[in-house]
Amino acid sequence: MAEEQLNTNDEQQEELSTEPVSLDLFLKDNVDTQLDKKAIKIKGIKAPFVIQTISSKRFKEIQNDATTTSFNRKTGMKSQSVNQSKLTDLMMIEGIIQPDLNNAQLQESWGRVADPIGLLQDMVVRSGDYANLGTEITNLSGISTNDASEVDQVKK
């Protein structure tokens, strides 16, 4: 549903009107804010993983958590950099809703107590499946790889 709405190809853009519309269409009661979900099959695991959209507000929080600020005493300039690996890990933890990677029983069974990303890496043994999960979460959330790179460049 959101994928169709977020699709911004030229053909769809031509169909959209630039004419003014009622403000009522933007009121909270008239806007669908439900997060999209999708099931992903991972080889070797009997049940599907379920992923969901990461909201724009939550993505900003995750991005801030993965960003470090440093101060150059020589130049007096502040700079920020995004740790892409940490950003990806945080997005995976946030985007995967089944299984619950923070579940103590699940973590204990894999020997990964308080380590949800280590748990995920142990569970999903094929690197391609792991990368696919990240790509699916990114796509479902409407974040393109180029957008993430551009954000990183702007932050630098």
Topology:
Blueprint: H1 2-6, H2 10-15, E1 37-40, E2 49-52, H3 56-65, E3 67-72, E4 77-82, H4 84-95, E5 96-98, H5 104-109, H6 116-123, H7 127-140, H8 145-155
Antiparallel strand pairs: 1-2, 2-5, 3-4
Helix pairs in contact: 3-4, 4-7
Protein name: XkdN-like protein
InterPro entries: XkdN-like (IPR014986), XkdN-like_sf (IPR038559)
Pfam family, one: Phage_TAC_5
Descriptive report:
- The structure is a single chain.
- The chain is an alpha+beta fold and 156 residues long.
- It has helices at residues 2-6, 10-15, 56-65, 84-95, 104-109, 116-123, 127-140, 145-155; strands at 37-40, 49-52, 67-72, 77-82, 96-98.
- It is 46% helix and 15% strand.
- The strands form two sheets. Strands 1-2-5 form a three-stranded antiparallel beta sheet. A two-stranded antiparallel sheet has the order 3-4.
- A hairpin with an 8-residue loop joins strand 1 and strand 2 (49-52).
- Residues 1-12 and 147-156 have low confidence and may be disordered.
- It comes from Apilactobacillus ozensis DSM 23829 = JCM 17196.
